[in-house]
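$ run holo --ligand "zinc ion" --emit tokens
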Amino acid sequence: MTQVIGQEYLQSQLLRAIQRGTIAHANLFWGSAGTGKLAMALWIAQTLNCSHTTPEGACLKCPSCQKIYHLIHPDVYWILPTYKNETEKKRTSEDFADEIRQFLLEHHFYPAYAQWVEKLDAHNKQTAINIEDIRQIKQKMSYAPFEGHYKIVILWHAEKMRPEAANAFLKLLEEPPQNTIFILTAPTPEQVLPTIQSRCQNAFFAPLNQKSIVNYLMHTHKTDESTAYKAAFLAQGNLNEALRLIHQDTHTFDDLVQNWLRACYSVKYKEMQEISEVLSKLNRETQKHFLTYLLHILRNALIAHYEAQTLLFVPDNIKEFTTKLGKTLSIESFNALYQTLSQAMEYVSRNVNSRILYLTLSIRISKIMSRQQKAP
Ligand SMILES: [Zn+2]
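-- output --
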């Protein structure tokens, strides 16, 4: 079962508020993706309705805790931005309840918005929280809680409320129904209507520290230590990203990175062409991961350039290469490579022809690197 990862201080403050009965009836959890806003909202809903509360909050085992976790508790409402699906006649979060349940469980309550759009297959559609959602909540608020002590309404990406939905929601906040707790989440408070924001208790979710992510990956997902460290490092405090990274094998990238840069350095056109071919055949997401990984290796090479090997954060099998690369390249070359690769990342997002992209990229990298003296 998902616990809240990191955020111990915030969690203890919220727990104290629950225990004292002073929890705000409206809360705005803000911060970047993968920091645990929804996991915390889930835990609050569980703690408020748990039948065997412990001094640390929800027991996570009783029927109430279980039902809330599986999104089948009648007093906890999840509102996510949706779109109008004409063919299946779906519109509100209630209509999309199955998709929401699958999605949140799949991502262990650490989801990212792009994954939700993907799940809904709503790429070219406007996703939003609509007035119908707010009307449904309002109607539900008029009954007493069915099973629990509290009704909890969780609005993910509350900044995506349409103006008429936001106004209706504001009215709801102005006359707060009894025993109801609202939890809104958003990337930043400024994105939420000021009149709503000012009625909420704001809580900032900082990026997670590396140690919390490593522990979680190793204990809950049985990730080996080196993969866990690598994912935690690359994820920069975003658990969603870390989870994605452990399911992706960067080992295969290590060989590609080394062979490609070596071929470019030695200006071996045939090899450059072959590797470009391999890269262009990867799907776009993998291409982005590959380029991100290459940029990561470059950053580490730059650290090695300053002889700070102890700071290197790359897998053992590519450490020597990274160190040599660092010794080989000048600062100008680093800058040039960094710019070239960052630009390539943009091109990948823009659906350009991959074969031409990697061929051109190979030649550019080759030109930048061959100005150097020694081979990495
Ligand atoms: Zn419980």
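-- notes --
The mean pLDDT is 90.
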